[in-house]
Amino acid sequence: MKFGVIRFPGTCDDVDAQLAAARVGEAELLWHRDRDLKGVDAVIVPGGFSYGDYLRAGAIARFAPVMESVVEFAREGGLVLGICNGFQILCESGLLPGALLVNNHLKFVFRQVQLDVVDHNTPFTRTCPPTLSIPVKHTTGRYYAPEPVQVVLRYAPGHNPNGSQDDIAGVVNNAGNVFGLMPHPEHAVDALTGSTDGLAIFESIRAAVSERIPVA
Fold this sequence. Notes:
- There is one protein chain.
- The protein has helices at residues 14-21, 65-75, 85-92, 199-210, and strands at residues 2-7, 26-31, 42-45, 79-83, 99-101, 109-117, 131-138, 142-144, 150-155, 168-172, 178-181.
- By secondary structure, the chain is α/β, with parallel strands linked by helices.
- It contains 4 helices and 11 strands; from the N terminus they run E-H-E-E-H-E-H-E-E-E-E-E-E-E-H.
- The mean pLDDT is 93.
- The strands form 2 sheets. The chain has a 9-stranded mixed beta sheet, sandwiched between helices. A two-stranded antiparallel ribbon has the order 5-8.
- The chain has a single domain (2-210), classed as Class I glutamine amidotransferase (GATase) domain (Rossmann fold, 3-Layer(aba) Sandwich), CATH 3.40.50.880.
């Protein structure tokens, strides 16, 4: 099992994502100007501030050469995980529906939240428990979609930190192989951080790849 973690200028959670993924398989960084995905089994688009969030969060990163390969990889059924800024990039790239808007209180938020796993039938959540405790840290995390979407995670009652539509914290595409979420599972893989719940997402990906679970 080999993960590829993309690094853009301004990305700040790539190393944490790489270390988290390395707990369940191999993991290496992929440079934003390199179209070669190096034969990875799954791609992680991590959190941070790609290209300084100029114009709009994720709006410039979608045009990076590596994203051309990620789009093709996803269309061929490859597993793609977008975390926070990565979620924003996947929405900007058209790989996921909807958009991430500025938090309803117009402030940066950083806190631990409780999440309800509402769909375990995905390659990203198949080994997850019913609830997860994972931190969020963002200013532009309020999810909105005008059409129905496939929801995977919801903020538990009282834990919506940004005014996200229908308490949505994470969604998948129609094929089920592209997953975006605002919480940071890579920051919840060690007991020293107060939670290891995020590790279940990386373990789910490993299990799906190793067992070649159909995604659609």
